[in-house]
Amino acid sequence: MPLSRRDFLLAGTAAGATIGVGVLVPLGFVLADDDDANGATGASLATFPRARVGSVSSLGVGDAQFFDYPYEGTPNVLVKLGERVPGGVGPDNDIVAYSNLCTHMGCPITTYEADSHTLGPCPCHFSSFDLSRDGIVGFGQATQNLARILLEVDGDGIYALGVYRLIYGHADNLAGEDLVVVSEGV
Ligand code: FES
Fold first, then answer.
1. Beta carbon of 125 within 6 Å of any ligand 1 atom
2. Catalytic residue among 104, 117, 148, 165
3. Which residue is closest in CA terms to ligand 1's atom 4?
4. Domain residues for 59?
């Protein structure tokens, strides 16, 4: 059952939650060596309630698993690259997640080429993105990196904590209504 943003704000206030909707922190606070190669401005990270989105033990090298976050119907892809990358999590620092909404016109991309770490080609106009290089555009009409999901690993669980860069179609990452329920069962 979706938790509305308003409900979370109220619950978070009552419970003294340390991670809340609406928190904006400088990018460098979390991804110190992140560098938006396309020169996007307004670097900031929007944090949301922690949600379990995968398991270390069930994510093999080259796997791509899809999940909604931070809102129901907002798709993302979780991958284990097989090589250490900045901001990667897990025992090998190689697990990353990105919005799989193409930054050109928002088409969902569900094709992942593990050998080249490429998400794409986009089914609409063939853009592709390199998930080992902060979601940079590798080919096509898109001009901006994919929105990136901030992750952490706790035991065997992989958790999403927030989103860096705008989710396609949002003028504000915090403007959605139906947050993904925090799940412990993935
Ligand atoms: S929507 Fe993906 S390339 Fe146009």
1. yes
2. 104
3. 125
4. 3-24+43-179
